[in-house]
Amino acid sequence: MIKLGVNIDHVATIRQARRGREPDPVWAAGIAEMAGADGITVHLREDRRHIQDRDVRILRETVRTRLNLEMGATKEIVAIAVGLQPDMATLVPERRQEITTEGGLDVAGQVRKIRDAVRKLQKVGIAVSLFIDPVAEQVKAAAEAGAEFVEFHTGRYAEARGEAEVEHELGTLYEMAEMGVDLGLRINAGHGISYWNVAPLVRMAGLEEFNIGHSIISRAVLTGLAQAVGDMKKAIREAEQEQGVIG
Fold first, then answer.
1. Could you give the CA distance from residue 150 to residue 128 in angstroms, rounded to a whole number?
2. 88-91 and 67-71: which strand pairing?
3. What is the CA radius of gyration of the chain?
4. 25, exposed or middle or buried, with CB in 10 Å at 0-12, 13-18, 19+?
5. Which of 55, 57, 43, 50 is nearest to 15 (CA)?
6. Which residue, 12, 59, 137, 220, has fewest beta-carbon neighbours within 10 Å?
7. How far is the C-alpha of 120 from the C-alpha of 7, rounded, in Å?
8. What does the pLDDT look like over 30-82, one tens digit per residue?
9. Interatomic CA distance for residues 217 and 15, integer angstroms
């Protein structure tokens, strides 16, 4: 059965807009787990634009399923991961100006550096995944670097328009997943996956888990809005009655 890892970065993005305390991504993780999430994913970026060190510390203590830490392969973040010991570390590229991760990690262009980070993480029992584009060169390099998993960047498929383009991108994902399995890699997928495009992806060879954030958090903002407005109205009415403002 394919698992669902829920990325809660965007909950932290909303919090950081005010540099306040809410919404707390730790609470979001608990709600997601109670709703059936098989794991929680967060990205601790070098610039700490959303998820903070405090978040990952508390999440490590409170997540009851599996904690997947997305991270750059830098000395600082690798050291944090080694100390934190999430269940999985997913190495991703990081660019300071990007809004979200824009492409896969160039493993082929830095195999030695990636292999070193992989070994440090695995040494303390952390499973390692590499977030890569569905390209043969990168799949082979991921296996060479010693990672257990690859997470295929599904952005090109998610952004494809027209039946022919969609089928082409799907075909590429299917083919690269098969190659990964043949090389002994375990397969995950993520980026741009929504309620409308997820179905065809389940046919990817060896697929174990989706990591999905934006689409789920976007829907939650809307499907939970009516409840949130109603709760606020109720709080106001109860305060009025308690303080005698209305009869």
1. 8
2. parallel
3. 20
4. buried
5. 50
6. 137
7. 24
8. 999 999 999 999 999 999 999 999 999 999 999 999 999 999 999 999 999 99
9. 13
Q: Residue 231: its pLDDT value, please?
A: 85
State the maximum Cα–Cα separation within the chain, in Å, rounded to a whole number: 73
What mean pLDDT, rounded, does the chain reach?
Answer: 93
Bridge-based pairing of strands 3-7 and 207-212 is parallel
For the domain covering 3-242, report its CATH number: 3.20.20.70
Q: Indicate the length of the chain as a whole number.
A: 247
Pairing of strands 39-43, 127-132: unpaired
Active-site residues: which are they? 43, 70, 191
* Contact criterion met (CB below 8 Å) for 7 and 41: yes
Is the pLDDT at 96 greater than 80? The verdict is: no
Instruction: Classify residue 82 as exposed, middle or buried by CB count within 10 Å of its CB (0-12, 13-18, 19+).
Output: middle
For residues 238 and 179, the model is more confident at: 179
- Please report, as a single letter, which amino acid is at residue 140: K
SS3 call for 67: strand
Using CA atoms, how far apart are residues 59 and 76, in angstroms rounded to an integer?
Answer: 19
Question: pTM for the whole thing?
Answer: 0.91
